[in-house]
Structure formats: structure tokens, C-alpha cells
């Protein structure tokens, strides 16, 4: 979500009165916030140049494929359409230590469609950032210091009927290697959180009792709750989630408020 905040607030940051082509300016700003872009199209609707110079745009539509947020995180496809934007872009360009939200004259809202490919998700799982987070989760769930755990061969498989399987080998210092498999369906609750549907967990081929799995599933659901973003002025809602054998697709709504609101 931090990426989306920076993106939404930075769309007009490079506008200047010389050679003004709004579509190209926004496309350039979008590209500058990504590691690499394979395909990208930007369209701005009904915006006279003088309004853009004041930081006002009626609507921005962005469609991209192969968007690399970092060298390890790739988005297969992204479509975004904003409501009217009104930003004090001169204040935004000054930067200083202010949050980008401080330049908003009104909330910035956008609808999103995001597609993540299974191969890209597995590449992300190999990144140091994800490994560090897995260690932290293992420390909380299994007890002890996160540095005690080594994660090997993490993998996610996208299944039919909105189900997902995650497999990983966990090696604790001076302990037996544990092959862990977690499989579950996913469901959206009130647009804010995820519910695990018929989850199952096995360790070294042994299926855990439903009582233990139920507690685990509840903990995962509590971790993913978009309500936690609201203190930062971000309202996000998941509208749709679709999982098939190759891709995960979701639709969402995001609203970023000025600090005063």
C-alpha cells in the first residue's frame, strides 16, 4: 500500500509549463517509481493544460504488464482508474520531510485490477525480504529467536476453486528438518480481511488436528486486515478475488486522504 500512496500522490509531480504533455508526464512518473516496465499505457481524460498546471486532472487510466516493483517483485498486469485528482504539486515537488499526502487538496481515489502470476509469486518468495518475514512469523508461532530458523525451498501453488497451497522446509538450529504444507481456500470478509476456507496443515506428511489448524487460520486472518491502514489515512477494500491454476487476480478500491482528514 505504501507503493500505491507514493504512486497516486506522484502522478503530477513532474508537470511543468514547458512542452506540457500530461499523458507522457504521468507515464514518466509512473516508470520512475518502478524497477522495470515491460508494457505501459497512460490515458488522461478531459484535462485542459491550464487545469493540469494547477494540479487538477479529471481521470487517469493506466494499464501495464510486466511491472517490476523491485528486482524480485513482478506484477503480471495492473489496471488503474482514478477519480478526479487535485494536488498541490508545487508543494509535492518541494518534498522536504512531509508525507506525499500533505500535497492533497482532496482525497485521491482509484479502482485497481491486479494480476499476479504463480511464477512471479515464487520468485518473490526467494527474496531476502520475504525470508526475513517468514523467520519473524516462525519465531512468533514456534517460539524463540527468528534467527534460529532457516527456510528452504518455499513455494506457492495456485489451485482451482480459489484455493492456494504453500510449501516450505523449515530447519531449526540442531533440530529435524520440517516439511510444512499449508492448503486453503480464500474468501473476502467485508472487503477488509481474508478468511481461510477448509484449511489443512501437514508437517512431514502428518496432518495436524482441526483444532490446531483452526487457531492457526484465525491468526492468519487477523494478520491480514486492511483496517490497520486507516490510521495512515488509507482506506482500501478488496472487491473481488479469483484464483486459478496459473494466476491470482484481485480487484480493489483505494482512497488516500489528506492528513487533515
Mean pLDDT: 82
- Give the helix/strand class: alpha+beta
Q: How are strands sequenced across the largest beta sheet?
A: 1-3-4-6-13-12
What is the molecular shape?
A: elongated
Strand coverage percent: 35-45%
Organism: Symplocastrum torsivum CPER-KK1
Protein name: DUF2993 domain-containing protein
InterPro entries: DUF2993
Pfam families: LmeA (PF11209)
Structure write-up:
- With 261 residues, this protein is α+β, with helices and mostly antiparallel strands.
- It starts with a helix and ends in a 5-residue tail after the last strand.
- The longest helix has 15 residues, at 128-142.
- It has two domains: 2-106, no CATH class; 120-226, no CATH class.
- It has helices at 2-10, 22-32, 49-53, 89-94, 118-125, 128-142, 210-223, and strands spanning 36-45, 56-57, 59-70, 73-82, 85-86, 108-117, 149-159, 163-172, 177-189, 193-203, 206-207, 234-243, 247-256.
- The chain is elongated, with a radius of gyration of 21 Å.
- The chain is 26% helix and 43% strand.
- The protein has a six-stranded antiparallel sheet with strand order 1-3-4-6-13-12.
- This is DUF2993 domain-containing protein.
- It comes from Symplocastrum torsivum CPER-KK1.
- InterPro entries: DUF2993 (IPR021373).
Question: Which terms summarize this structure?
Answer:
261 residues; alpha+beta; 2 domains; 6-stranded antiparallel sheet; 5-stranded antiparallel sheet; elongated; DUF2993 domain-containing protein
